[in-house]
Amino acid sequence: MNGVHDMGGMHGFGPIVREEDEPVFHSEWERRAFAITLAMGFSGAWNIDMSRFAREQMPPAEYLATGYYEHWLHGLERLLVARGLLTRDEIDRRVAELGAAASTSPVPAPGPPAPASAVQRAVPAAGARGPTARPAGRRGRHR
Amino acid sequence: MPALRAADVERVLRSRRGARLPDGVPPRFEPGDRVITRNLNPPDHTRLPRYARGRIGVVDRDHGVFIFPDDHARGLGKTPQHCYSVRFSARELWGPDASPRDSIYIDLFDAYLDPA
Known about the structure:
- The complex is a heterodimer of chains A (about 140) and B (about 120).
- Chain A is an all-alpha fold and about 140 residues long.
- Chain A is about 50% helix and about 0% strand.
- The mean pLDDT of chain A is about 85.
- Chain B has three helices and five strands; from the N terminus they run H-E-E-H-E-H-E-E.
- The chains are: A mainly alpha (about 140), B alpha+beta (about 120).
- Chains A and B meet through helix 2 of A and helix 1 and helix 2 of B.
């Protein structure tokens, strides 16, 4: 899959910052995500290469904005749903319950999606006049 | 579906088999062979990086026989085959501005390679 995970050769991510005395897990949920993933691997419902592919299928913008064990969790949820072991609705309901229990204030709802009309207005305008086309004054190097 | 019990965790983790398989498959290449990677763009899992497709390298060593992850991820079985460390010059991968002294070694499966 030509996905965002295949990052070799990409520019613009800045230097690799090494963390001094990096812990195995940065928080308790990472430890649990790791353990649950290994435990479910034991079920035989999928293999390790299927787990890797499941992580690669995370939407690219989300993939870049999240950490390693968030990728693991995404892949695990995707496989659990794909194999019919959990439904998306069951996962969402449990997350909402835990979120409600963890804070007195409700989990903020996601904001509205960007209006499609803005994109639709922009695209025809850009396509109408190719800004890079130039008159064919000189012969090219190849034909 | 088997459930993993707490008492079995240590034994199970210690007995997990790696991806290495018995050496029952002949290698298609040997160290020193020039190879060209295939230009594969599968919509599912592959271990062939985009930047190393259609590039010429030299087999540095043969790691032995392993599960082929691409087929394994597709549920097509293990497709046992050799995996090699293949050396590419930095210039082969990144063009004339790359260092002439640098090389990159990538672990690549038989199914990714053709003789060059």
